[in-house]
Model the fold of this input.
Amino acid sequence: MACGSQDTGSAKIPAPKVTIEQTSNVPAVAESVPGGLSVSLRMTVTNLASIPISLKRAEMVSVDEGGWDLRQTQREFDRLLQPGASETFDFWVEPQSGSSIAGHNAPVTLRLTTIFDSSQGAFKHVTVQHIGGRIQ
Done:
């Protein structure tokens, strides 16, 4: 569920639709093991513009307290999305244990900044979204 989004940059085109979800649970044994965790994420980007756009980079960081804490992390892309096209990207991140009393599978709020380029100029799309919440 998206909490909010914002677009910045010089491009005067409709913002893409960007969502992110957690696609893995953190194993229960991780509750008692110190150190980093491994979490699988899936980002979906839909080009709502009438021109091609290129996804260049995704930057993400957790906001507030949650099941896990992700420091500023980025993934590089160079993927062209045609008008109306959607593409899904699966990747892993390595957050640290969070402070939620509900454990590592408690909800996490992520701020996701995606950087795009187009023939109309470069722009950023920022969204804040709740993910996870698979309490065992």
